[in-house]
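Section 4.2 – Deliverable D4.2 (structural model, holo form)

The reporting period included a commitment to supply a predicted holo structure for the target in complex with uridine-5'-diphosphate-xylopyranose. Inputs used:
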Amino acid sequence: MKKIIKNICCIGAGYVGGPSMAVIAHKCKDIKITVVDINEEKIKAWNGDDLNNLPVFEPGLKEIIRECRGVNLFFSNELKKTISESDMIFISVNTPTKNKGIGAGKASDLKYIELSAREISKYAEGHTIVVEKSTIPVKTAQTIKEILSSQKEKELNNKNKSFSVLSNPEFLAEGTAINDLLNPDRILIGGEDSLAIDLLSKIYENWVPEKKIITTNLWSSELSKLVANAFLAQRISSINSISAICESTGADVAEVSKAIGMDSRIGKNFLKVGPGFGGSCFKKDILNLIYLCEKFNLVEVAKYWEQILSINSWQQKRISKIIVEKLFGTISEKTITVLGFSFKANTNDTRESPAIDICLDLIEEGANLNIYDPKVEKQEIERIFNKKLKNKIEIKKINISGSVKEACLNSDAILIMTEWEDFREIEWDKIYPLMRDPSWIFDTRRILNIESIDHNKFNIWSIGR
Ligand code: UDX
Ligand code: ADP
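Output (C-alpha cells):
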C-alpha cells in the first residue's frame, strides 16, 4: 500500500467539494488535487477568469482559488483519467431526499453516491482510499464497499485493484466555510484500516492540531454527522418556539437567548431566532435520522425528531400569517418586498431557504412580490418558482429586483428574510418615500435597530419581541 498521498481526486465540485479541496490544496502544496464533476458548466465556471462568478460564493474562497488553481488544484470533467491517477478519492456528490419509491420524503437518494462508487470501481488502479465526505445515511460506507468489491466492475479493465473506505464527514457551514475548514473544531475519521486512517490524518495534520483529529468506527462517524446536525437544528427549533411565547408575553427572545446562553452548560451559539432553518443539511439529516429510527422500530425516537421539523415549518407558517393579519387581513394585490433569498447570509445557496415557503404562502394569498438578494442569481430564483408554481399568473406576480431601492418601489411591506450585512445598513428614511402607506417592515432575523427607525413612518414587526 502507498505510504504517501500525492494525487487526490474529489468527485463533486459543489458547496462541499469545491471549498474543502481548495483548503487542502492551499495547505498541502505537494499534493495534486483534481475536482471532477459531471456538470460541464460548473467546471467551466470553476475554471473561469471571473473569480467573482465561481459556482460557490464563500468569503475567502476566491483568494485561495487564485493562489492554487492551475498550480496544485485543478477542476476537470475527466473522471476516468483523474480516478485512475488518484491515491485517494473523496466523494462529495449531492444526496437529496428521495421524492419517490421506498423511503420517499425521508431517505436520501444515493444514486449519485452509487454512480461515483461504480466509476471508482471501474477506473481506479492499484490501491485507492475512498473517503465519503457527502452527508449520507448511516451504513452508506457499506454500500460503497460492496460496489467497490464487485468482481464484474473489476474485470472490466482487468487491473489489479484494492480499496479502503473511510468516512470523513464535513462539518463546514456555508458562509463561513473557509474559516471552518481552516480552523475546524474537530476532524472525524471513521474506518477500520489504520494505515488509510493514518494517511488521511497526515493530510489534516498539515494545519489541524493532532488532538482535534479523532477516529471512530465507520458507523459512529456516519451517525455523528447526522446527530451533530440534528442537535444544531434542535436548538434553532427550541429558540424559535420560545420566540412565539415572547411575542405573547412581552419577553424579548434576544434577551432570553443571551440570558440562557451565558450558562456555560447551554452555550451562546446557535440560539439566534429566525424564520426557521434552511440549507441542504438540517432537514435532510433529521429526515434520515427519522427514517433510520423507523427502520429499527424506534417509533418514539422518530416522533421526537419529527417535532424539530414541525416547529420549523410552523415558524414559517406563523410568519406568513402574521404578515397577512397586520396588513388588515388581506394582501391580495398588495406588494411585498422580500429582502434576501439565500437560506442564510454570505452564501448564494437557496436550498431549503425559508424564503421559498414564505414567498409561496404570500403568493397564495394574492400578493405581488419584489425579491432582492445580493448574491442569488435572478435565474436561480426564477428556476425555483417555475418549478414550484404551475400557474403562469402566479409566476407573473414575482418580480426579481436588482437593488434594495428597486425592490421597495410602491411596496406595502418589507420582509427581511436573510441577515445580509447590506440590509443592516439600509437608510430607512430614504426608503420610506418609495413605499405606500401604511409602510410595514417585518424583520424575521432581528437585524434592525428599531429604536433608530422613525415609528411615525414605519410600522415594525420584529420576531420574538
Ligand atoms: C450546517 C452545519 O452547521 C454544518 O456543521 C454542517 O456541515 C452543514 O449544515 P449550514 O446549513 O451551511 O451548516 O449553515 P448553519 O450556519 O448551520 O445554518 C443553518 C440554518 O440555521 C440557516 O438557515 C441559519 O439561518 C439557521 N440558524 C443558524 C438560525 O436560525 N439560528 C442560529 O442561531 C443558527
Ligand atoms: P453539496 O452541498 O453536498 O456539495 P452540491 O449539489 O453543491 O452538493 O454539489 C454536488 C456536486 O456533485 C454537483 O455539482 C453534481 O453535479 C456533482 N455530481 C453528482 N453526481 C456526480 C457524479 N457521479 N460524478 C461527478 N459529479 C457528480
